[in-house]
Design goal:
Blueprint lengths: L12 H12 L2 E3 L6 H10 L6 E5 L8 E7 L2 E7 L5 E5 L14 E3 L2 E3 L6 E3 L4 E3 L3 H5 L15 E5 L2 E5 L7 H5 L2 H10 L5 E12 L3 H10 L4 H4 L1 H5 L13 E5 L5 E6 L17 H7 L2 H8 L1 E8 L3 E5 L1 E2 L6 E2 L1 E8 L5 E10 L4 H15 L4 H15 L16 E3 L18 E3 L6 H14 L12
Antiparallel strand pairs: 1-21, 2-11, 3-4, 3-6, 4-5, 7-8, 8-9, 10-11, 12-20, 13-14, 13-22, 14-15, 15-16, 16-19, 17-18, 19-20
The protein binds fe (ii) ion (FE2).
């Protein structure tokens, strides 16, 4: 039965066609999760061509403010220049390639390389060379040695994204149907959202697809993975409690789940946000968005490939708090990711409420948060159990296929849903994840027609 390919042979067309067939049946070959050759292909075809989150405009307030980030394996330096524009450079000295700035954030007029002392300003221009005239004579034209720009950088409602593909579709087009849902959480209040504190980050031994899936289309896990919240009386006993609401499959592999209150439970409108903020929501959201948002408890989803967002309600009546966390699942290999987690809250929220929300975020979804710890444990177990000989068997006639079939034939789209995308009248359905996998496959096979790239 075993057909363990020599991994150095790479991925061939036959394998990708087999994966496509299985995806159509709602089946997911387990070997894809941890295979180094699949990962190498993802690095090239997915992370080389999609928009990935870099940070939020509120992290860069004054000219000279900078943060250091990553686009997969490329270090990025984001700086606000004197004109108030945000520049994004490869954070690597143009002299000998040194990682130029290793601080997380700060404010600077110039960046000096620790290796030979070349210095660059906030426009990325080379402005200082140690003993320049003496060692290079007239041969060094500083203008030719500026920091390299990230090929594409665009923003949406304060979110800054980068793309390595200079010919990529615009960010606006890429976000597509997801914008309607992002607008609710990013645009509900006057002044939008702001980041508080720096991003927290930690490394987890798992695969980036699992974490994107978890936020993108898996409210089904909540009743079991987070069982302790039920036992403590924080969550309802109803095993369907995370199913109420809609799961929406969006274009370009994006996913969102809009949860509504469990039948029979009382919950104030607008995620329990302070009453004084409600007129802003009514002013800033469309009639359709307001209709959806009024009944919403949680908005959670993923922006393909590796950004997730979670806007929940925690606490008990009288002490409810809401926040937004943005998540990057930065791949560091097929079985390792670095998680970057930002806390955001409405600029216009009362100050005391912001502090309550921050504490709630840290206790639930910070690196040591109770809910985060539950998820992390499970994500690592999936990868641990997917690295062995049997799970990595590429013979798909053998039953090492995972089940993404929930609701496949039984749950029909809700035609009355007022937002974009294909909406299902429950969150216990695998429709959005199947959509995510379809887009993954579309990118992975984007040049399948070019025979020269494949050695069958
Ligand atoms: Fe979870």
């Amino acid at each position: 039965m075993a057909r363990i390919h020599n991994l150095r042979n790479g991925i061939d067309r036959e394998m990708l066609n087999e994966i496509k067939e299985k995806f159509e049946e709602g089946l997911f070959p387990q070997w894809i999760l941890t295979d180094p050759d699949i990962y190498a292909l993802e690095v090239d075809r997915i992370f080389g061509y999609t928009w990935q989150y870099l940070g939020h405009e509120s992290e860069l307030k004054e000219p000279g403010d900078y943060v250091t980030r990553w686009l997969l394996d490329d270090p990025v330096l984001l700086i606000k220049n004197k004109q108030g524009e945000i520049n994004a450079f490869l954070n690597s000295c143009t002299h000998r390639g040194t990682h130029l700035c290793t601080a997380d954030s700060g404010n600077k007029k110039a960046f000096t390389c620790p290796f030979h002392g070349w210095t660059f300003n906030t426009e990325g221009e080379l402005i200082g060379v140690v003993a320049g005239d003496k060692v290079y004579g007239q041969k060094l034209n500083k203008k030719e040695w500026s920091l390299r720009k990230i090929p594409r950088v665009e923003t949406y409602k304060g979110m800054i994204f980068g793309n390595m593909d200079k010919n990529a579709m615009s960010l606006d087009e890429y976000l597509g149907e997801l914008k309607w849902y992002l607008d609710i959480i990013l645009g509900r209040s006057d002044g939008g959202m702001e980041v508080k504190g720096g991003p927290q980050r930690w490394v987890v031994n798992t695969n980036w697809k699992l974490t994107a899936e978890n936020f993108g289309g898996d409210p089904y896990h909540v009743a079991t993975t987070h069982r302790s919240t039920v036992e403590l009386g924080i969550s309802p006993k109803d095993p369907l409690y995370s199913s109420y609401g809609h799961q929406v499959k969006l274009n370009h592999g994006h996913c969102v789940n809009v949860s509504t209150v469990v039948p029979g439970l009382n919950m104030p409108p607008y995620q329990g946000l302070p009453k004084e903020m409600w007129p802003m929501f009514e002013r800033n959201l469309s009639k359709e968005q307001l209709e959806v948002y009024k009944k919403t408890t949680v908005i959670v989803g993923s922006c393909f490939p590796n950004l997730s967002f979670h806007c929940p309600v925690h606490g008990s009546e009288g002490h409810l708090h809401n926040y937004l966390t943005l998540r990057i699942w930065r791949p560091m290999g097929p079985d390792k990711i670095e998680i970057w987690s930002w806390f955001l809250i409405d600029k216009a929220a009362p100050e005391a409420y912001k502090m309550d929300s921050y504490k709630g975020y840290v206790a639930s979804f910070g690196p040591s948060g109770t809910l985060e710890a539950d998820d992390t444990e499970i994500w690592t177990r999936v990868v641990q159990a997917s690295k062995g000989r049997m799970a990595r068997d590429k013979d798909l006639s053998y039953n090492n296929l995972l089940n993404y079939m929930m609701g496949m034939d039984e749950v029909l789209p809700d035609e009355s849903w007022p937002g974009p995308g294909v909406a299902y009248p429950t969150c216990y359905v695998d429709a959005a994840l199947r959509g995510m996998h379809d887009y993954w496959l579309e990118l992975m096979t984007s040049d399948l027609k070019d025979d020269s790239k494949w050695n069958d």
